Amino acid sequence: MLDLLEKWQIADGVVRITLFRILPGKELEVGRSIETLCEKMGLKQDSFRVFRLFGSYDLVFIQANASLTTSDFVKLGTIPFITASSEYVCYKWEDRKTKSATFGIGEILNPILGLCFVKINPTIVQSSGLGPEVAFVEYLRNKLSKIHMVGSLGWFEVILLLSESSLSSILNIIGEELPRLIYRYETPEQQGSTSFFFAEKTLSLIGHELDVSDPKIKTNRSTVPLPKSNSSGGVLSINFSLSCKPRAMGTIESEAIKHFGLRGEEKHINFRFGPRDLEFAVPLDKIKTLNELIQKLDKFRLSNMDTLIKTYTDIQYNYNEHDWWIDASEHSNDVKGYLILEISEEEARNLVSLGPEGAAVASSIYKYNNLVGNDIVTDAFVDILRFIEVTRKLASTAKNGLTVAQRRQIIRRLRDTKDAIAQRSQGVYVGIEEAPFATSSSGIGIVRILKALDCFVTVILNRLQKKWNGFVLCGDFSRFEHRDDLIVVPTDAALDVQRYWAITHETMHVLQHISPNELSAREIFPSNKGPAVSRYAEVGTSFWYIVHEICAEVLDYSVCCQLDLKEYLTTIWTYLIDRIFEHHDKEQLRSYLFRSFAVICYDQLVSSHGVDRALLNPTSVKSTICGKLDYFRAYDVLRPLFEQDERGEVEFEIIVKEFIADILPALPDLFERIEEIVPVARSGAKKQSKKVLAGYIRRLKGGRILMENELHNPEVLAWLMGRTTIDNLPDKGTIAWILSLWNMYHVQRLGPDLTKLIS
Fold this sequence. Notes:
The protein is α+β, with helices and mostly antiparallel strands. 44% of the residues lie in helices and 14% in strands.
């Protein structure tokens, strides 16, 4: 794998693939609207393509050279008649030597399109990380160059794109060549393994460009003949099913018989049980081209659009022999495991007896088990397993009923669990094929991004010898947050490598939560030290809050960051001014200044003398902070603090005095406790020079994947990339960073073990 990762890198240009469901009869109209609006917005005609699809989805929009963080499609405004969508943010691999990428928008210019979404077997991903994907890239390039490929940041890791001028060519590739390739393909690590399966799930879609179905367009290029039975006995059939309003079923049936000329016993309409109401095979004996077929289907949709709810056109192509079928009988004795949470009848009754919150905990366990009961989608949800277990423990161990505080905590955790499941459901198999209505705040599938974020936090806490039971949730707002052992990362920041450093502060808050014996205020500021110190242990007070934040800030600086003090402060304050300080809020400024003052004092002590209580006196602290006045004056948002008010007072000086009066008494005990923790972090850290780290950043800028030995301290690299003096990382660098963390998450087994999931 190392050799292949040295050969291949992420290419320039993000690809966005969006699937749409459209109201029956409006498919072509919506497709043309998308084309027109994109051109009006300024997208070049050669940067996107719109195809109609058969099956559960009706349209696909493919955009090259798109933005990683922002969708151009949402800028188009409301487009009527779209009923559902599923979006994938994708990347291309590139051969470093030839600079040739695995996909280009100019490679899908033919009228017929094939899409194949491939879920790589998660049990081999867990052991090999990116190995199977890059090996597959290499195989396609050497053996099947006509199949183009992009990688996805969602649940499906790979999307294959086929472009042909005839329907028969697409059917042959998808029906014969692709299964033979995918099912029997082996990575170098798996060669010789009799029980190896590369693809855990595939989903294939066939589409055509809009001109094929547009009756106004009549050219030789847009005319696509229907395939005839070939020498191997291949037979094409079109099954048309629909959902409609109950009162219209009789009319629809009569219309279908008349419109399609259904006659005889073999050409009849079936009544279906389930979401679809009627189904029939479309007679093809008088239809010679795909154009004629689509226009006939469209005419039926248009004439009945007032009563149709959804239509499905399924292409079926039967071969007499399938030499790519694999006999799985030899694996019939394999024991399949499931990562589910078992709950006894007694425990379930006890939870219900606690009231609605306890019953909701039991219900959340059942719902989670429903998700992971299908091993195909288990890997999308396993990272929240430990969080649910902790929630369950909170409820199950409650004595004499739940307190108000416990109820609130459980409600919050259940709400976070629901949001996490919704985000992880976006674009998974059951969602894309059946009901893609679970939405994440980003609107895209982000399963691989979430695992990368999980890796980032887990590595830091592992080095501190702490077990993390939480997960990462992408939020709708610009602020990073923590809630107990949960970390909330703004969605745009999850796709912005140069803001990953901000996650480390929240990780230190998680450390406070999971290490109460070391970092709780009650432990650091016991009552026997007198009221001047013990006041910081009163949870929920302003004193407790600011010292709680200062503790996380100093831990962040000492444990996660190798920048010097000026670079650290510049990174922090540039971010605060750009993202946080929307208005001149005195209390907000005061809080962040207190945090920076504490870091300045800590740095001054440990860089020269260590934590010396004698040096933490008002005179010394004031002198240390005032030595940084020119630094703070440089920011426009802080400049008014240095002006005299009508009383002749300077606000900044008042804030310094408040810091000395309100915070200084806490610093000696706080710094001593932090210095007890820092050696543990440093003992597990691998010291890397700025020159070496700068080399890693150059690799990322080129789209290169970093291996786990290069990501021993990802937070140090994140802080270095967050510096304002560094050039912006291109999108391919961000994707390379995400995939590097994702790869590390798997090969170092940082998540729950999937090896029991034999498939």
